[in-house]
Amino acid sequence: MRKTILLVDDDELVRITLKEFFTLLGLTVIEASNGREGIEKAINNEIHILIADYRMPDLTGVEMIKEIWKFKRDFKIIILTGFANEITNEVIREFGVVAVLQKPVDLGVLEKLITQLLSNPKNKRG
Asked: Residue 104 domain-assigned?
C-alpha cells in the first residue's frame, strides 16, 4: 500500500517542488493551498504524514491541526516554516510534532525523516 502525504502550503512553488520530490520517492501526495482546504482533505482521506506550512493566510498550521484533531489523530506531523522561533515546545509536545523544519527545507534531511517515519510503525500517532 502506498503511503500518503498531505502537503499544505500556500506557496505554490513549494507544493509543486515537494509533490514532485515525494512522488519520486513512491509516495502519494494530496495537496492543499490553505488551512481550510487542508482540514477538508485530511478528514476525507487516509493520510500517513501531514506536512504543513506554519504561516498561511487563513489559518496557521497549528490552528489547522487543532481542527483536524477533532476528527482524527492517526498521522504524523511535520511543520515547515520560515518562522521556527514562533513554534513553542508546548505545541510540539501537544500535537506530537515530529519535526519543525526551517524553509528552505533540505530535501536530504526531509527524505531521511520521511523514510524513518514510514518505516517505524511505533511512530504512529493515535
From this structure: yes
End-to-end CA distance of the chain: 20
Angstrom distance (rounded) from CA 26 to CA 105: 19
Q: Quickly list H helices, the chain.
A: 12-24, 35-44, 61-68, 89-95, 107-119
Are the CB atoms for 62 and 95 separated by under 8 Å?
A: yes
DSSP three-state, residue 48:
coil
Query: What are the pLDDT digits (tens) for 47-88?
Result: 999 999 999 999 999 999 999 999 999 999 999 998 777 787
Nearest to 6 by CA among 47, 40, 44, 35: 47
| 125 in any annotated domain | no
> Does some domain include residue 60?
yes
Q: Are 35 and 43 in contact (CB under 8 A)?
A: no
